[in-house]
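Model: Ready when you are.
Researcher: Fold this.
Model:
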Amino acid sequence: MLIRYGYRIEIVCEQPTALVTMLDVHPSRHHTLVAQDAMSATALGPAGGQVPLSLHIDSFGNVCRRLLAPAGGVRLEAHGTVHDHGRPDPVVPEAGQSHPAELPHEVMPFLLGSRYCETDRLMDTAWRLFGQVEPGWQRVQAVVDFVHNHLTFGYAFARSTRTAAEAFEERIGVCRDFAHLAVALCRCLNIPARYCNGYLGDIGVPADPAPMDFNAWFEAWLDGRWYTFDARHNQPRIGRILIARGRDATDIPMLNSFGPHVLQRFEVITEEVEETTTQRGASRQPPRYIGIAPDDGRHVAA
């Protein structure tokens, strides 16, 4: 299938403000791109004009763009089309768990505590809840089931400083909180886990009437590879488009601002499109965006 995706974000600032964005599709998906999602940055206000961008790859392999937003603000926009195999996230119940001594060096950082995933505060809880569950896939799935049922989802619950331990105590959160708590519990159980964000449209599931948004999920290391898990939705989904991976949201904020600003506009699109339409050039047409109020907390990524 073909999936069209994109965003339109407007940042208002009174003085020139440095920004670092992490909004490009992850390099691991570049070979599936049908239409490139190159970001454009346009100065707000009567003068307009394009704002220069520079690009680099961070230590986790994610695409970052730097820019200096002029006084008045900037509009960030991109849209593209990706080819997807159309299959749900794989489910492999027989996938086993490796002993920490057997893990590759590059996987070890995802076994340690991090800013939003305090393994020291959750260690006893994790072993009390899941210590008797069979190691491997069954144990990770038990964690996902628990987090899915333990937390109540709501955009009004968004708080950029909430940690995994706080989410466990408060029992509320948004998708990043579901992912952080699941990641922290897995790490407590000696299962490497990493935080992910990206696009996830309503493909293969009933349409959600709420405006579209970016999503957060996580990956766990089992039997020598990473597998996708989603504690918020708790079901295999079709059409994930990865943007970034890291230890937690600290590593992969979609927007880092080095100065005061106001988020004036925030819109996201992810939808399946007909291949024949795309081949005729529809992928070059502006996508159908659905607006999100800038003060509802859904834009929080860091």
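Researcher: Now this one.
Model:
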Amino acid sequence: MTAGVAALLGEAPGPADGLRLFCFPYAGGNAAGYRELRRAAPAGLRVCPVELPGRGRRRGEAPCTSMAALVASLADSLRELLDRPYALFGHSLGGLVAYEVAAELRDRGAPLPEHLFLSAVAAPQWSRGRPDRPVPTAEELKTELAAIGGTPPELLENEEIMALALPVLRADHSVLAGYRYRRRPPLPLPVTVFGGESDRVAPPEVLSGWREHSDRPVPVRLFPGDHFFLDTATADLMRAVEHGLGLLRPVR
């Protein structure tokens, strides 16, 4: 296992992997956020949570503050893992990263994913802020986290945990604020979009814009819950992924 794979996944890919699902975390999140999705996966589908710099087992590295740099690094590291069928999944910021990684791999002539799953994220043509916007203060970030849910109040009040989390959150904020969509031809692969029925961060009406980013129909599937339906509807979400990959009968 090379250093790139060790940093990205923390483990060697399995020799019997049928299909790999690379999962990119939401802003401030890490690979552990996909623990339950991994447990819900059927035999033959290997969920591979991707660890980004500055968090989890890569907390000793400086976090990326640029989407272009992050995507180039991920495409480099993934290259040796594309020796068998794979798909990409991203939640919130991770969805935008997943889309950009798929586009970068196409530009490089690399094998394309079997499917791109985008969860709780607006289409890339939607405005996401200004690069000159001041970086939020610690209190502003904590207020934002409390508003969108997904972070227990006791963690928000834990100074030690927040001291570790805030630099990553600031870096992810910079990635989003500095992101500028570059129009490209639609991706030549299936895309499925997931959303939460009561998500105020990426409400259902901003999800349909993804339909212009694939050369085939893009279904939008909504689940009960807010921005973190990833944690509350995990089993149903995995069944929808299996269906998208042709591993299940149609979801009713």
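Researcher: Key takeaway?
Model: The CA atoms of residues 140 and 186 lie 37 Å apart.
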